[in-house]
């Protein structure tokens, strides 16, 4: 049995996992989970992932959710080397920090806006949410200062996450001209 990825195509975390799969040359069966139809709350899905989030990866009897954990697992299990998730403790610490930044700050800002637009049908993004998003993008902009990628001169799994999240956030909160490093990064 091969890899199975439960996904929704527009999700930045799903896109991050797909980038990792592609980079590793791996194929997966894709199963769409329709969040708007609340399929993530079905008994079948909750057995896989009690947090009812996407993406969720099945690899035989292993079930992993959270795109950051999935990508770390994929590189560790299937990577030919450690370039995408370096083993050097100092380099890995920086990659891990950026992954935590993505989940705790950048994606949190995006998720907050996305929930209001897609699930609460709000037409306008509140100014406080725009401010939070811009603060998160400011950090990402600083991380790229003097670097080609988010932690240095080579890309890694932190780039997959931050690239997909930041590009979605910029689409919702325009103003990319304020972020020349991000503009080059995209």
Automatic annotation (TrEMBL):
Domain GST N-terminal, residue spans: 1-82
Keyword Hydrolase among record annotations: no
GO biological process: glutathione metabolic process
Keywords assigned by UniProt, alphabetized: Transferase
Annotated GST C-terminal domain residues: 88-186
GO MF terms held by the record: glutathione transferase activity
Origin: domain of life: Eukaryota
PROSITE patterns, alphabetized: GST_CTER, GST_NTER
Subunit organization: Homodimer.
Record's protein name: Glutathione S-transferase-like protein
Organism: Diaphorina citri
Native organism taxonomy: Eukaryota, Metazoa, Ecdysozoa, Arthropoda, Hexapoda
